[in-house]
Write a structure and sequence with these properties.
Layout lengths: L1 H21 L19 H10 L1 H4 L14 H15 L10 H16 L19 H21 L1
Helix pairs in contact: 5-6
């Protein structure tokens, strides 16, 4: 029994040291400058800011847990991947055709329930999309497609 206690104490000590050491692994939690604001209505912008901007803009609000490894690594990875996929802060870099495509693909992921991510919602309940929110986003997506069709 003493042997098991000794092993347990050493294990706890080593895990504690490892936990402290991993806190020094650098994590990029920067918010680059916002280049543009998405041209849309105040209603759509409110939904986007509440449910999408933490991962899909350069205006991420980094919560306290994003500073504690190993969770910080996961949060930073998700934000960087989200920005790569779609970044509302660099909307101006997309051609009109690419903006429409991005909106269409975004709406599809929302409609299929893939966004916001299921594991994001427990710590960010305000990001839950109501049926009204979904209607607003759907209408915006459809209106952008119509606007481009009219330009042609």
């Amino acid at each position: 029994m003493r042997h098991i206690r000794r092993i347990a104490k050493w294990t706890i000590a080593l895990l504690s040291i490892a936990f402290v050491v991993i806190q020094f692994v650098p994590v990029d939690r920067t918010n680059p400058p916002v280049e543009t604001e998405v041209p849309t209505t105040a209603e759509v912008r409110a939904v986007l800011r509440r449910a999408c901007y933490d991962c899909h803009s350069n205006e991420t609000v980094w919560p306290l847990y994003s500073r504690i490894a190993p969770v910080s690594w996961l949060v930073a990875r998700d934000v960087h991947e989200g920005r790569e996929e779609l970044n509302f802060s660099t909307w101006n870099r997309l051609t009109t055709k690419d903006q429409v495509k991005a909106l269409h693909e975004s709406w599809e992921t929302v409609e299929e329930g893939e966004m916001p991510l299921w594991f994001y919602l427990p710590t960010h309940p305000e990001a839950h999309l109501s049926s009204q929110d979904r209607s607003v986003l759907r209408a915006w997506s459809l209106s952008m497609g119509s606007a481009v069709s009219e330009e042609r």
